[in-house]
Write a structure and sequence with these properties.
The protein has about 130 residues and is mostly helical. Helix content is about 70%, strand content about 0%. Helix 5 (about 85-100) runs antiparallel to helix 6 (about 105-125). The chain is globular, with a radius of gyration of 15 Å.
Length: about 130
């Protein structure tokens, strides 16, 4: 009988950091999404990772290190290049598949639910 190691939950800053790194590895390899991050948003990944980690720590762990207005950031991006339904669908696919592949537990399930709501709300807001 083969033993499988249990997947960690997104219940600590270290696990959230690992998720963010794995998630963005997928996003930045995607031919449709990578240009949005690299060319249009021109993010510096070394600055972006800690911000995204702080964002998810705030949502999942109650952290207070994230103080940016996420919607305004994405409105500015949408002004540069309109975000499509397919962009949101692909982003959410990578979020869920990365979470399911590497993590398991109540915080992970909460993260997937929050990500689904964020994607739907952001798409609705930006497309109107």
């Amino acid at each position: 009988m083969t033993e499988f190691a249990a997947k960690p939950d997104m219940d600590s800053p270290e696990h959230i950091r690992a998720f963010v790194e794995q998630f963005y590895e997928q996003l930045l390899a995607d031919p449709q999404l990578a240009p949005l991050f690299v060319d249009v948003a021109a993010i510096d990944i070394r600055e972006h990772f800690p911000r995204i980690q702080a964002y998810w720590e705030k949502l999942l762990l109650g952290g207070d290190d994230y103080h940016r207005h996420t919607m305004n950031i994405h409105r500015a991006l949408n002004d540069k290049q309109r975000l499509s339904h397919e962009d949101f669908t692909r982003w959410l696919y990578y979020f869920h598949s990365t979470a399911d592949r590497h993590f398991s537990g109540p915080k992970t399930e909460r993260a997937k639910l929050i990500a689904s709501r964020i994607a739907a709300n952001m798409e609705k807001s930006l497309q109107s």
